[in-house]
Amino acid sequence: MEFITYETEGQIGIITINRPKALNALNSAVLGEIEETFDNVDLDNIRALVLTGAGDKSFVAGADIGEMSTLTKAEGEAFGKKGNDVFRKIETFPIPVIAAVNGFALGGGCEISMSCDIRICSENALFGQPEVGLGITPGFGGTQRLPRIIGVGKAKELIYTSFNIKADEAYRVGLVNAVYPQEELLDAAKKMANKIAKNAPIAVRACKKAINDGLDVDMDQAIVVEEKLFGSCFETEDQKAGMGNFLEKDKEKKLKVVPFKNA
Ligand code: DAK
Q1: What is the mean pLDDT of residues 69-92?
Q2: N- to C-terminal Cα distance for the chain?
Q3: 118-122 and 97-101: which strand pairing?
Q4: Residue whose CA is closest, atom 14 of ligand 1?
Q5: Could you identify the atom of ligand 1 that is nearest to the CA of residue 84?
Q6: What is the set of active-site residues?
Q7: The pTM is what?
Q8: Among 108, 114, 98, 116, CA closest to 147
Q9: What's the average model confidence in pLDDT over 40-57?
Q10: Distance from Cα 85 to the centre of ligand 1, integer Å
Q11: DSSP per-residue string spanning 22-35
């Protein structure tokens, strides 16, 4: 692949968007490679992913303005659909995806980070939806995910004004969970991914599905979503081993790490 690096370390995978000439901006080729990378993740062995950008300046500086500038209405819709399909794939991917935002996260960059489950960032990160300044609306889910993550009022302010916010403000409004010095960011993301990977994989996947699917429906339906996924855990070896170990009288065994299995 030309623009994506994918590495695995034990049970986690690290996807790096690598297009330094354009600050990792997303053109059709990059979007295609991101999709292909996710399609090829070995879900039998990998339990969490980290998504980051190459270099120490930019996570993703948006959709590629050069490529977009000459689009017709139909092409614009097609480009928007391509991005949205890839971002939705990330959002609904069976295992958790952590965005390690290591610099600019503007437009499509902010949007791809919001399609991940969790965002952490470096101190030099900058978030924003500058689209109205370019004569367009956020087109890769920004109008939908930003209000869901930080609340309607703040999201409308950021989108209408096209103001960028720095890492500390992103943390204050809940767009990111934590801020790290640049050189510590990737390790922090990997550490979080490894913590996730140590837990029962089927239960973790069920949690992601329960949270995502539950947020799309009213509370009565959401509770049913949770009940079904909760019930499904009782058909797993992980549940038997996890609870069995807890109930063991033998202290040694009780504290033993459960050898969680995949489906
Ligand atoms: N696209 C293409 N190239 C970009 C780019 C981008 N978004 N961002 C940066 N680059 C390129 C620059 O053109 C420059 O290339 P060369 O001139 O060296 O060839 C190189 O990266 C370095 O950038 P700068 O020289 O500008 O670096 P600075 O440090 O001075 O500034 C910056 C960094 C990130 C502040 C600045 O580059 C910048 O403002 N970039 C644009 C940021 C932005 O506005 N991003 C949002 C793009 S709009 C839709 C689908 C999706 C979207 C909308 C609609 N549908 C079709 C429905 C999404 C839209 C967006 O994401």
Answers
A1: 93
A2: 30
A3: parallel
A4: 22
A5: 50
A6: 111, 131
A7: 0.95
A8: 114
A9: 97
A10: 21
A11: GTT-B-HHHHHHHH
Assess whether pLDDT exceeds 60 at residue 256: no
Where do we find the tokens 């879900």? Answer: 43
**Number of other CB atoms surrounding residue 183 within 10 Å:** 9
What is the predicted pLDDT for the residue at 257? 54
Q: Which residues contact 3 (CB under 8 A, 6 or more apart)?
A: 17, 18, 19, 29, 30, 33
In contact, 59 and 15? CB cutoff 8 Å? no
**Ligand 1 pocket mutation, candidates 23, 30, 79, 113, criterion most atoms within 8 A of CB:** 23
Q: What is the mean pLDDT of the chain?
A: 94
Which tokens sit at 118?
A: 């969790």
- Enumerate domains of the chain plus CATH numbers: 4-197 (3.90.226.10), 201-255 (1.10.12.10)
d(Cα 156, Cα 162) in Å, to the nearest integer?
9
Q: Which residues lie with the beta carbon below 6 Å from any ligand 1 atom? A: 22-23, 25, 61-66, 76, 79-80, 83, 104, 106-108, 130-131, 134, 136, 139-140
> Percent helix, strand, coil in the chain (nearest 5)?
50, 15, 30
Q: Whose CA is nearest to atom 9 of ligand 1?
A: 22
Using the Cα atoms of residue 234, residue 40, residue 112 and residue 109 in order, give the sign of their dihedral: positive
Tokens of 221: 């339906």
For the CA of 76, the nearest atom of ligand 1: 56
Confidence check: pLDDT of 218 > 80: yes
Supply the residue whose CA is at minimum distance from atom 42 of ligand 1: 61
